[in-house]
Write a structure and sequence with these properties.
By secondary structure, this protein is mainly α. The protein contains four helices and no strands.
């Protein structure tokens, strides 16, 4: 069993480091909001994620045509339509996933 002094020393070192690492993103958040690179990533990331999901969904792992292509097509259509209409990535992905799971 560790000695109480050793446990206290470990906590005394680990606690401030952990706190600093947790607080760091909040201290630089205002600078990141103003950075052009962060703004560009914020604009492009939803479209990039949707593209990756679409490629993963449409391209089967083998060179065969998947048997559930109607479900994939319906889910893709719902996802694209909702993203175009509402511009909500979370809503689009959730609805497309739900449609795929219901039809699959």
């Amino acid at each position: 069993m560790p000695e109480p002094a050793r446990v206290a020393a470990v906590i005394a070192v680990a606690a401030p480091i952990t706190f600093a690492l947790r607080a760091l993103p909040f201290t630089i958040a205002s600078r990141l909001r103003e950075a052009r690179v962060a703004q560009a990533v914020g604009r492009l990331l939803p479209a990039g994620l949707m593209t990756i999901l679409l490629v993963y969904l449409v391209l089967p792992p083998s060179h065969t045509v998947p048997a559930d292509w109607p479900a994939e097509l319906a889910a893709t259509a719902v996802t694209v339509a909702l993203q175009t209409w509402r511009r909500s990535t979370l809503l689009s992905i959730a609805a497309g996933t739900a449609v795929f799971l219901l039809l699959h």
